[in-house]
Specification:
about 325 residues; alpha+beta; Rossmann fold; Tumour Suppressor Smad4; 7-stranded antiparallel beta sheet; 5-stranded parallel beta sheet; elongated; Diacylglycerol_kinase_cat_dom; ATP-NAD_kinase_N; NAD/diacylglycerol_kinase_sf; Acetoin catabolism protein X
Length: about 325
């Protein structure tokens, strides 16, 4: 194409798909060279169709930099985001804050945790659309999809006038406890474990309560506990919860790839929008999207609520269909 089109952000997490669950289960490993390959395929498509500019998080492995170096004759202007890098998840949050003022859409390469970090950096009153590609562990938020398809979907999005029709708002969980406020895209798990430690939650016996935005029967992780009681689809206008104990109905569920666990459900139900669930908890930790993030040192009341106005996500299939309909991929 002769005319340059659009500006795209890329946030790739070199740590996604490598946590302790690789040691206690049979989860797949996405090494960083495969992430370079994913980005290379995206950039090759962008270069072909004339994407004007990209902004990228300059991660510790140099995923985007290495992908750029592999493409001969690339015409895309590539800009590393200038932030104070810590090479922790806060980099994804800070990169998203900068990108939302500069790009049309942000590609996120990682798992639920990476996407959560990105969403924390967005203005959710008018969020920048995301194109999430799964390379994590328990991936309920990003899709496992070929990156070439993602790139073509983004080309369709950039060329379409009615862009809002190609995106959808996802649900979001918010938690408040003491003076801490945070969010989760998929699930919140309240644990008796007293320290954050390795972050990833894999001991089902420590879990006291689970809150979810989605609970598909095909999910892996704690959301699947609720799926076996109250299946919740992504487009359902509600979430769900389960209170666990040592007694009650016992559910067998996949806590991680290849690992089956047991949970006793004392109580479960639907979580409606903006109606907080109050939970009294003793000392312990709270996991957000599979990783322990909050330490609770004393008896406290946690408030968990659901909102339907979470991040905006590109509908890959619909975008491609629109591109075909609009003859974006047809030459005279």
């Amino acid at each position: 194409m002769s005319n340059m089109i659009g500006k795209v952000g890329i946030i790739a997490n070199p740590q996604s798909g490598k946590d302790i669950r690789r040691l206690v289960s049979k989860a797949s490993v996405f090494d960083n060279e495969e992430k370079v390959n994913i980005v290379e395929r995206i950039l090759s498509v962008f270069n072909y169709f004339g994407v004007e500019e990209i902004y990228y998080m300059d991660d510790s492995y140099g995923i985007v930099r290495k992908a750029l170096a592999r493409i001969k004759g690339i015409n895309i202007k590539a800009n590393p985001i200038e932030i104070d890098y810590t090479f922790d998840e806060i980099d994804s949050t800070n990169a998203a804050k900068v990108m939302q003022e500069k790009v049309d859409i942000i590609i996120v390469i990682g798992g639920d945790g990476t996407n959560r970090a990105v969403v924390k950096g967005l203005n959710l009153d008018d969020p920048m659309p995301l194109a999430p590609i799964s390379t994590g562990t328990n991936n309920a938020f990003p899709q496992m999809i070929e990156s070439t398809t993602v790139a073509l979907s983004i080309i369709s999005y950039l060329l379409t006038e009615e862009k809002e029709e190609l995106t959808k708002r996802e649900k979001l969980l918010r938690i408040k406890i003491n003076d801490i406020s945070d969010l989760a895209l998929v699930d919140i798990a309240v644990s008796k474990e007293q320290f954050i430690g390795s972050k990833a939650v894999w001991n089902e016996k420590s879990i006291k309560a689970i809150f979810v935005t989605v609970a598909e029967v095909t999910n892996i992780g704690f959301s699947s506990v609720i799926a076996y009681e109250h299946p919740i689809r992504r487009n359902d206008p509600y979430g769900g919860f389960a209170i666990l104990s040592d007694t009650g109905e016992k559910i067998l569920f996949p806590i991680a790839p290849g690992k089956i666990a047991k949970a006793n459900i004392k109580e479960s139900g639907i979580l409606h929008e903006n109606i907080p669930y109050k939970l009294l908890m003793e000392r312990g930790t709270i996991a957000l999207d599979g990783e322990r993030k909050i330490e609770v040192y004393k008896e406290s009341v946690a408030s968990v609520s659901l909102t339907l106005n979470g991040p905006k996500v590109l509908d890959f299939k619909r975008a491609l269909e629109e591109g075909i309909k609009g003859k974006f991929f047809t030459q005279a």
